[in-house]
Amino acid sequence: MTDSKARIAILGASGYTGAELVRLLVRHPRVEIVALTADRKAGQSMADVFPQFAPLVLPTLVTIDEVDWSGVDLAFCALPHGTTQQVIKRVFESAPHIKVVDLSADFRLSDPGAYEQWYGHPHQALELQQEAVYGLVELYREDIRKARLVANPGCYTTTAILPVVPLIEAGAIEPDSIVVDAKSGVTGAGRSAKENLLYTEVTEGMHAYGVGSHRHMAELDQEYSKAAGRSIVPSFTPHLVPMNRGIYATIYVKTAAGIGAEGVRRVLSEFYAGEPFIHLLPLGQVPQSRFVKGSNMTFMGVIKDRSPDRVIIISTTDNLVKGASGQAVQNMNLVLGYPETTGLEQVALFP
To answer: Do 319 and 184 form a contact (C-beta atoms < 8 A)?
Structure first.
């Protein structure tokens, strides 16, 4: 890009990830938000939908069909899975120059058969799937720089892939013994009105869901298998906990002979040396989800288990930032040639 500001559209701006994109981008020095879309809330202002934006001058929410794509350089798609494929296909047909960062699950799986298995219908844009790049920056940075379509990873998977893939690649753990026990804040379920997400249904308790069948398993299978060079099927169980934001993953691994917790931490330290959004705690220290709230950081801790060949890794992110919109901005920065950390330097909000 030149020194002029990139023109940004956010599709699905009335949801939590859309609002988080607005929050991050309104102070980004290299971009201008030129279009915001919504379905049921088209015609309203962002201040009507999210009052925190009342002091800002932002475009009125419109339908996707009303967007002038000739005036857009990059679009974020924060739409439900299953609908994004056709939307992005139409966008590229009318404006091939546009870059797209998709926050849905529609382009994350490189195997169309796996997509159909997990999402219940054939992929509707196979030619675009072939060019999509999985947008986990710390693993695919150079491919993302050249991409036209970036598939932003899921929040659970970002939190569980980052600490595990380097260990698989290094041969430091037994890939067939990975167990991921993860918790999510309620915003991970989106903003739609649902009875099971009412305050009284969620507060003062927690529960597992999607047990043995959660769709994010497909991303874990894909990335762990790619790292191992063979099929890997990890155990993964998600839980809903009564907090607004956060993913907290407790990961149990069996180490290769002679590695131990010290070796696990050493592999991660060397792999992520210099990474601006990865913070590895000293051996034995436990991260807390509140330490990343509102930031684009991933905190990791490596802890010895009682058995010398087992190690516990705890990884935590803010599901709306590094798990969604912050990572999407990180991808945008790469695609547009900006410094990767631009607009993402905020420190976590604590308490």
So the answer is: yes
d(CA 148, CA 130): 11
Q: Which of 33, 35, 155, 329 is catalytic?
A: 155
Q: Does residue 77 carry a catalytic annotation?
A: no
Half-sphere exposure in the Cβ direction for 74 (13 Å, CA) = 27
Number of domains in the chain: 2
Q: At what angle do helices 326-336 and 16-25 cross, to 10 degrees?
A: 50
Instruction: Give the integer Cα–Cα distance in Å for 50 and 22.
Output: 10
Report yes or no: 251 and 178 within 8 Å, Cβ to Cβ: yes
Same domain for 160 and 280, yes or no, is: yes
Q: For residue 3, what pLDDT is reported?
A: 65
CA distances from 66 to 35, 76, 80, 86 (A): 9, 16, 19, 16
- Which of 87, 114, 131 is the last residue in one of the domains? 131
Q: What is the CATH number for 123?
A: 3.40.50.720
pLDDT at 1 over 80: no
Q: Torsion angle, CA of 222/224/228/229, rounded to 10 degrees?
A: 0
Cβ pair 301, 281 in contact under 8 A: yes
**Cα diameter, the chain:** 62
Domain containing 276: what range? 156-319
Predicted confidence (pLDDT) per residue in 232-273, tens digit: 999 999 999 999 899 999 999 999 999 999 999 999 999 999
| Domain contains 333 | no
User: How many CB atoms neighbour CB 97 within 10 A?
Assistant: 11
pTM: 0.95
> Do 171 and 308 fall into the same domain?
yes
Integer CA distances (angstroms), 128 to 12, 123, 139, 150, in order: 20, 10, 21, 10
